[in-house]
Amino acid sequence: MDMQIWMRQSAKHWEEALPLGNGRLGAMMFGGGREERIALNEETFWSGYPRETNRPGAAEYYAQARDMALSGDFPRAQTLVEDQLLGEFTQSYLPLGDLVLRHQGDGEAQALTRRLRLDRAVHETEYELDGVHYTRTAFVSQPDQALFIRITADQPGVLNLDALLRTPLRGSVEAQGNQAWMDMLAPSNVVPSYIDCDDPIQYEDAPEKRGMRARVLIAMTAAGGRVSLCPGGLRAEGADAVEIRLFARTSFHGFDRQPFVDGLDEKQLCQEDRAKVDELDWETALSRHIADYQALFNRVSLTLGDGRYENLPTDERLYAAREDDIGLCALLYHFGRYLLIASSRPGGQPANLQGIWNQDARAIWSCNYTININTQMNYWAAEQSALPELCQPLFQLIADLCKTGQRTAQTHYGARGAAAHHNTDLWRLSNPVGEQYRGFAGCAFWPLGLGWLLRHLMEHDRYHPDDDFLRNQALEPHRLAARFFLDTAVEDGDGFLTIAPAVSPENQFYDQGHKCRVSARAAMTTQIMREVWENYLLILHRLQSDEPMAREVKAALKKLAPLQIGSKGQALEWEKEFEEAEPEHRHISHLYVLYPGESTDERLQEAARQSLLLRGDEGTGWSLAWKTAAWARLGDGDHALKLLRRQLQPVEAGTACNLNHGGSYISLLDAHPPFQIDGNFGSCAAIGQMLLQERNGWITMLPALPAAWKTGSMRGMRAPGDVTVDFDFSYGRLIHLTIRRSGNGEIRLRGNGKDWVIPSGAAGEWQLI
User: Fold this and answer.
1) Does residue 487 contact residue 417 with C-beta atoms inside 8 Å?
2) 193: how many CB neighbours lie within 10 A of its CB?
């Protein structure tokens, strides 16, 4: 089975490096010979601190902007939004810095290979220097909360190596004995990279305005040699083998606590981490790591094709672009699951725009949580690919936003309930961002972010029905979002409820010669309002409960606009068929109800198909993934594969931002470009949709199987209702199908033109083919 990403040269750019992670601690391995760079991250290391970011007095202007939009005066509504209704920007996810491993001497390494073993979450580099063969092995352990590195040579006493620490932030490096450490201070504020600023990385002196502290600690041992100090770190000399263990902690103590004056002791935490593994040998640490990782990763396996190209380097396979190399699609699927395990673990933070990996002090889009598609896409594959517990950080984000979002709802809208917009960060910012900059109404003034996130709570319950989960984790967020929608909903000129000014994320249209970002009603707004209200009522029904607000919700549902169809047969994005400013726009927000929604309405299906044809097949990496999943939902596997192949087209690292040309770097990381991890997760989800879908209570096998996928095998794929499916297929037909149920609900399944119904009852296993 194709379970490694490998190549015969080291990474020249950060995007070409290969990622390791344990959910909290991230490392990008460049796979160098003479010198290895390991770029380091820790999931809680962000700029800033908790503070008021809402716009005081915004609510008094909101009603004016709403009335302008409802009357059709979109330009004035947009100007008022950008003048009076936008709050501060999010903070930025930061790099810790680098660990550099440097062999003494000159000359380039020969016979170099580097590989990421997806089946073990281990990175391996082999190379020759000065006639000596070296092997470098690394992994980031979840059980032991450390990066472990081991370098061995095929000759005794020849290993002479420096281990150096460096950071792009304010910091210092010290060393004593066989330890070196780097202490850092995060900026108090980082201005987003898309805003012109002469002083974008800002530090404050007042303790209550200072940023987070962090420490990186390394400990080195040199078998057969000795360890000494050197400028910037540690030196091993005359060794047979060298081991390095790296620990990192920050002073983060919660989204609502000041990290400098009320933070944790990051220095003590690092020492505690080291003390826990002092007596742990390499082999035991490695086996503990692999056991923890494989307990998640080995739940699912996918094979496509006959593996004929598995022995070729990954970059060569990308550039060759062979149509019969369908194994690359399986590799992309496994890589998506690997990345989620590496970047999102229970008790931690959700995966951000780059997972947990970032090298820039002023990262593009602040490397934050963009919750108008990107954060949600990170978790699309989690349930179906048997990684449900990795959603826990996302659920905690939802719970946190329900707290900060209540203040935003009141301050910006004069409304009850809770709302979050298109960006958030470690500090759970929930306001529309933008300050008074022009152009931000079209992305930021969109109070549907929390509503969309709630879909993941219901998705979790679909796969694992649990009334306690609904009662304890899903009800209150739905209650708050539903209340906000009720308080802000108004009738438009057609008598339909809307939240105005309405935005279809990041898209624009022309009206009376003006390019507009806001309107009176947007299809996505209606779809998310309907979904939240219906799910709120569903939760109450499941819990056999009732609330006074339920009557308001039932009445409001009757006043939502139905799907509107345009002159070309397409689904309309706004209340009218406006001229689109970007007909091939990357977002397909108006098709939310198709995917990630589950609508099977025939009228929608055809309208969605026309919309996708009009949008075309270009787009960013995440856009390609969304469209791939949408085509899969329409049952067109060949078109889905066409887009998946575009996702696998190679993009050179360092390519400038491009909103219409996504692909993959040679590392298989998604190229927006630049790098965004959502395309990896979205592609993983889309591949799953090509193989299995569940809608209206029916599991459908091979619903969008491309003709090019002649043979394949899947083990462990999950379906709603606590169902696990194993299957093999050959030339469009299932040749093996086994169903396992750990719950007790009825199973209805379709495949090979046949229907099966397994009555509700005890858990069990059924071989159907």
Assistant:
1) yes
2) 17
291, 468, 471 from 541: Cα distances, Å: 41, 13, 11
Burial annotation 440-460 (CB, 10 A radius, 16+ → b, else e): bbbbbbbbbbbbbbbbbbbbb
Give the Cα separation of 620 and 684 in Å (integer): 16
Torsion angle of C-alpha atoms 416, 418, 424, 427, degrees rounded to 10: 80
| Model confidence, pTM | 0.98
- The pLDDT of residue 524 is 98
Distance CA 572, CA 574 (A): 6
Q: Which of 236, 194, 295, 215 is nearest to 40 (CA)?
A: 215
Interior angle at CA 412, CA 408 and CA 415, nearest 5: 80
| 541 Cβ neighbours under 8 A, 6+ residues apart | none
Specify the DSSP element, H or E, that contains 299: none
pLDDT digits 0-9 by tens, 284-312 = 999 999 999 999 999 999 999 999 999 99
Q: What is the β-pairing status of strands 747-751 and 698-701? A: parallel
* 729-750 residue pLDDT tens: 999 999 999 999 998 999 999 9
What does the alpha-carbon distance between residue 537 and residue 559 come to, in Å, rounded to a whole number?
Answer: 16
Determine the pLDDT at residue 655.
77
d(CA 700, CA 756): 10
16: which DSSP letter? G
Q: What is the predicted pLDDT for the residue at 149? A: 98
The percent helix, strand, coil of the chain (3-state, each to 5) is: 30, 25, 40
- On the question of pLDDT at 174 being above 80, the answer is yes
Q: Nearest to residue 685, comparing CAs of 742, 635, 625?
A: 625
On whether the CB atoms of residues 233 and 115 are closer than 8 A, the answer is no
- Four-point Cα dihedral 721, 723, 728, 732, nearest 10: -10
Higher pLDDT, 660 or 2: 2
How far, CA to CA in Å, does 149 sit from each of 152, 400, 535?
10, 36, 48
DSSP string across 163-202: EEEE-SSEEEEEEETTEEEEEEE--SEE--TTS--SS-EE
User: Are the CB atoms for 527 and 544 separated by under 8 Å?
Assistant: no
Per-residue model confidence as pLDDT tens digits over 689-721: 999 999 999 999 999 999 999 999 999 999 999
Strand partners, 21: 26
Is the separation of the CB atoms in 23 and 143 below 8 Å?
no
Which long-range contacts does 67-72 make (Cβ < 8 Å, 24+ apart)?
68/501, 69/500, 69/501, 69/502, 69/518, 69/519, 69/520, 70/490, 70/492, 70/493, 70/500, 70/520, 72/511, 72/520
Plot region of 429 (φ>0 → left; ψ -120 to 50 → alpha; else → beta): beta
Q: Count Cβ atoms below 10 Å from residue 184 Cβ, excluding itself.
A: 26
Contact 519, 590 (CB under 8 A): no
**E strands present in 187-299:** 189-190, 201-202, 213-223, 226-230, 233-239, 241-250
3-state secondary structure of 441: helix
Query: Could you give the CA distance from residue 719 to residue 716 in angstroms, rounded to a whole number?
Result: 10
Q: Under DSSP, is residue 366 helix (H, G, I), strand (E, B) or coil? A: helix
Q: What is the pLDDT of residue 654?
A: 82
- Give the distance, in angstroms, between the CA of residue 23 and the centroid of all CA atoms in the same chain: 12
The Cα 290–Cα 98 span in angstroms is 25
| Cis previous bond, 674, omega within 30 | yes
Answer yes or no: is pLDDT of 396 > 80.
Answer: yes
* Dihedral of the alpha carbons of 407, 409, 415, 419, in degrees to the nearest 10: -130
Residue 397 to residues 264, 376, 737, Cα–Cα distance (Å): 20, 12, 38
Phi, then psi, of 211 in degrees rounded to 5: -85, -170
Question: Cα separation of 19 and 667, whole Å?
Answer: 9
Task: Annotate 491-553 with DSSP letters as a single string.
Answer: E-TTS-EE-SSB--TT--EEETTEEES-BS-BHHHHHHHHHHHHHHHHHHHHTT---HHHHHH
Q: What is the pLDDT of residue 661?
A: 81
